[in-house]
């Protein structure tokens, strides 16, 4: 990899900014100042210093957030605040949310710049599970739960896939779906003559919402979590 590209991958620099920084002698490669932006480096073994900072290269990044309500899930908000504003700086250039949570929906949100994983996790053919905790307008009957378990008509060409639906001791609905249609949970509740008052995603594939994460907090995925995500990309059907 070129040294200027390496710098871009590890910082928020543009390629031009990285090249200028290198040419000004602010970068060391394996302990020696390098002024050649085109120098080739082995990204997994080289030691690159930018001023007093030793840079750390990651091929891909994986982060989880406990999304608060009031933010839209998008890279750009067009005047509205987005979940990207909560990510630690510098944000990796190609990091994006995996799927979407509605503006008023809270809970587990995954971010990555691993495009293949993103595509596989969202592919309709993979049927990756998403688990939601729903506060309904009124309690669901056993008949309502049975309809959700069998699949309901929500105005699309096909009814929803069978879901797991059960009421909790607190009176909330725990709903597990294997699709990601537009406003799906809200439309499913409407299909059984109910409304969503509050919606929180508590699991996505193999990931569960970390109880240590307060609303708005973010952390890197652990190596074990990333491995489980990779397995889910290939195993879920």
Describe what this molecule looks like in 3D.
With 237 residues, this protein is of the alpha+beta class. Helix content is 23%, strand content 23%. It has helices at residues 3-10, 15-23, 115-122, 142-150, 184-191, 223-235, and strands spanning 27-29, 32-33, 48-50, 53-54, 62-67, 96-97, 106-112, 130-136, 164-167, 173-177, 196-204, 207-208, 218-220. Strands 5, 6, 7, 8, 9, 10, 11, 12 and 13 form a 9-stranded mixed sheet that branches. A hairpin with a 2-residue loop joins strand 1 (27-29) and strand 2 (32-33). The longest helix has 13 residues, at 223-235.
Say what the CATH topology of the largest domain is: Alpha-Beta Plaits
Largest sheet: 9 strands, mixed
Terminal Cα separation, in Å? 36 Å
Structural class: alpha+beta
Task: Give a quick set of tags describing it.
237 residues; alpha+beta; Structural Genomics Hypothetical 15.5 Kd Protein In mrcA-pckA Intergenic Region, Chain A; Alpha-Beta Plaits; 3 domains; 9-stranded mixed β-sheet; 4-stranded antiparallel β-sheet; 23% helix
